[in-house]
Amino acid sequence: MEGQAIFKALIFVLLLSFAGFPKTIEVCPACPVKSIKRAIELSEDGDTVVVRGGVYREGTLIVNKSIKLLGEGNPVIDGEGRYEVIRITADNVVVKGLTIVDSGRSEVEDIAGIKVEGAKNCVIEGNKLKNNFWAIYLANARNCRVVNNWIKGPFIVGEVASGNGIHIWHAKSILVKGNYITGHRDGIYFEFVEDSLIEGNTSEGNWRYGLHFMFSHRDRYVNNTFRRNGAGVAVMYTKKVVMEGNRFEENWGGSSYGLLLKAIDDSVVRHNVFFKNTTGILMDECQRTRIEENDFVENGWALRIWANSWNNVIRRNNFLGNTFDVATNSRMNPNRIEENYWSYYRGYDLNRDGVGDIPYRPVKLFSYMVENNPSSAVLLESFFVEVLNVVEETMPVVISVSVEDERPLMRRVDWRR
Fold first, then answer.
1. Closest by alpha carbon to 55, among 78, 33, 36?
2. Is 0.85 surpassed by the pTM of this model?
3. How big is the chain by its Cα radius of gyration, in Å?
4. Does domain 24-325 have CATH number 2.160.20.10?
5. Which of 122, 295, 380, 406 is 20 to 30 Å from the Cα of 78, by its Cα?
6. How far is Cα 165 from Cα 120, in angstroms, rounded to an integer?
7. pLDDT 10s digits, 29-40
8. Close Cβ partners of 38 (under 8 Å, ≥ 6 residues apart)
9. Contact 123, 147 (CB under 8 A)
10. So where are the chain's domains?
11. Which of 386, 389, 383, 403 lies closest to 335 in space, CA to CA?
12. pLDDT band at residue 176, thresholds of 50, 70 and 90?
């Protein structure tokens, strides 16, 4: 009887194929087609494979046709700790509603839960990926969407024990939206990725970076949350990137920061919140970048600017309760700092135009000492530093660093309007 049922199912599939209509192939333990691999073999471009609830252990599934692979009833595809689970090599593939677990691991191969290689117009949406080496990996891809996936890395401790949550290499026009990523080396990784958007993701508790972004021009990342990652977010060797509406929270540690800008040109950092990071933003070798209308709240250092950064604009930001507002390792200021609100400003506004009548010098003598002699940070709460701050407020010329805001604002910038 079982043989007759399989024969009828195959006849039905063949009839649909000859009729030229897209067909749907169902996979489940009680279905005529019990194997996902067999369903892919039977399918043709434009078909849909629906995988019903159950656990499937079939090695590596290679999707080399333009099909939809849809899960219903929480089907689990298990890599058994040995295999890459799904590898997509065709254009126009949709993978949705699957739970992908336990991919293999390798020190020489980038083994993933879902990998897209050399394809375009693919959609990876609404999947759960747990305990995979790399979770979602796109290479040489174009016009793909990675949307609303839940990703949790392996339980093995340390960044060398896992790959990245969403890893995209050498791609263009990619949308990464609405994903949750935790427990991987880097939550999201972009390298040689152009004209793409990272939007509305939460990347937290990753071993290294919440987002790691290299050699990737004309990209935007907006309205994301990067929380409690090993070293925060690093955007490096990139031009014309827009970073807007993000939250950088509690990225705390000896070498941590909310956002590292390394060798960034002609970019925009706007409408972000930097809350309780060791360093809000660290600028290293940045040029012609605008940092505007952000909130820096209760960070160790709000903004650290190295001497190799110049022609940047830091304007209309709120600096609220940071241990140090600005630090630098240079006595010169080749950047424009103006019209910011500083919670430690003690000036006055006699003509009531909303701008302080005396400049504010955000680089304190002690912060300058710490930048050049990090071990001196142990004196932060000492009586010596209290006296130093009083002397500096009375006689600001004791520090020759030329960083100052000549037009400090008397009220907070309401950039959320």
1. 78
2. yes
3. 27
4. yes
5. 122
6. 20
7. 999 999 999 999
8. 27
9. yes
10. 24-325
11. 403
12. very high
